Amino acid sequence: MKVALLDLKAQYRSIKNELDEALIRVAESQYFILGPEVTKLEKNMAEYLGCKYALGVSSGTDALLIALMALDIKPGDEVIVPTYSFFATAGVVARLNATPVFVDIDPVTFNIDAADVEKHVTAKTKAIVPVHLYGQSADMDGIMAVAKKHNLAVVEDGAQAIGVQYKDGRRVGTIGSIGCFSFFPSKNLGCFGDGGLVVTNDDTLAERLRIMRVHGGKPKYYHKVIGGNFRIDEIQSAVLNVKLPHLEKWSAKRRENAKLYTELFVKAGLAEAEGIQVFDANNKVLLPKPVYKADGSNELVNYHIYNQYIIRVENRDALKAYLIEKEIGVEIYYPVPFHRQECFTYLNEKDENFPHSNLAAESTLALPIYPELTTEQIQYVVECIAEFVKKA
Ligand SMILES: *Cc1c(COP(=O)(O)O)cnc(C)c1O
């Protein structure tokens, strides 16, 4: 049996007519830049996320970059980021000649360790960039408390977490100063190329973002500030306007798939429960931990939308090779934390300060989790992992 890591064709087939119609509508209008589809997307997104302003931009990376530019992050400023994330989270900071300051992660959620953030605040610190990695919310209470105390901006990297509700019901991205999202095809809400979104509730920041998106000109051709071309296309917006109404259903399906994985791993004797951190006789596979309502109702808060379903295993590289041989698509997100990247050696960060990120980089593996997966496919993945563990 073949199981792809992600099968975008399955999603396309399910809404092909609507999508094709939308593409032709744009073609016939010959309106490509900042037109009615973008306006519609921004209105839909602000409504869905529950925020005052949403602006379509050219990618998730550009969403982060324009957010930092709107906050006037300058050379020499320090910006606190988790050391374990997709490269863009730290890359955008360095591109503005500001200094990324790395913080280790929480070993259960893989998100920035909020308790460790404050120790890294200095007189130069201007912002914190928590990442809601894999589709699970970071500890925003802890982060917002530090930000408030030290008067820091918070830019939420929600690229993998669109629609995730924090425990108080707010959607991530709307809690900090600016929220950033990506519509890269592999995200839970993906377009037909590159696209992104910035959101805020702040009038001044919204105006700055809007101006920065078109080179900083206001009125056109008169520049008080330097921006860039950070626009999203009409075609991408039209695709997203078709897909957005399906997002909740797709994310719910990912959660169902995750639940099935957990059940099967436990049944196969490979794992005892979710969120356990030690490898031992009962735990060959460490499972992701979704978060339940605090009232003890065993009801899942919409905390985890499983953009990625991440397990941890001791002999990860061997398992990866084994599964690929079995035609199962798996991937390592991410093999090298920022403090170990060659391009960041100038920061002189000490490897031993990031034990949880190092362990994650060495032991995590993403399994197929996309909404259209069948029960049989998930069973096959768990069977193959069980086979591998037995042989080892
Ligand atoms: C995908 C991603 C980005 C970048 O988004 P692009 O649209 O690919 O530029 C940034 N941060 C995280 C955590 C991501 O997963």
Kindly provide the radius of gyration, computed on alpha-carbon positions and rounded to a whole number of angstroms.
21 Å
Give the CA-CA distance, first to last residue.
22 Å
Derived structural class: alpha/beta
Tally of distinct domains:
2
Strand content: 5-15%
Give the tally of β-strands: 10
CATH topology of the largest domain: Aspartate Aminotransferase, domain 2
* Widest beta sheet: strand line-up: 1-7-6-5-4-2-3
The run of helices and strands is HHHEHEHEHEHEEEHHHEEHHEH
Number of contiguous helices: 13
Overall pLDDT score: 95
CATH homologous superfamily assignment of the largest domain: Type I PLP-dependent aspartate aminotransferase-like (Major domain)
The largest sheet, given as strand count, sense and whether it forms a barrel, is: 7 strands, mixed
Q: Could you walk me through the main structural features you see in this protein, from its secondary elements to its overall organization?
A:
This protein has 392 residues and is of the alpha/beta class. The chain folds into two domains: 8-246, 3-Layer(aba) Sandwich (Aspartate Aminotransferase, domain 2), CATH 3.40.640; 247-391, Aspartate Aminotransferase, domain 1, CATH 3.90.1150.10. 38% of the residues lie in helices and 11% in strands. It has 13 helices and ten strands. It has helices at residues 8-14, 16-29, 36-49, 60-70, 88-95, 114-117, 140-150, 203-213, 234-243, 247-267, 316-325, 355-363, 375-391; strands at 53-57, 78-82, 99-103, 125-128, 153-157, 178-182, 196-200, 285-286, 309-313, 364-367. The strands form two sheets. It has a seven-stranded mixed beta sheet with strand order 1-7-6-5-4-2-3, sandwiched between helices. Strands 8-9-10 form a three-stranded antiparallel beta sheet. β2 (78-82), α5 (88-95) and β3 form a beta-alpha-beta unit. It is globular and about 70 Å long. It starts with 7 loop residues before the first helix and ends with a helix. 45% of the residues are buried. The chain binds pyridoxal-5'-phosphate. Pyridoxal-5'-phosphate is lined by residues 59-61, 85-86, 88-89, 131, 157, 159-160, 182, 184, 194, 196.
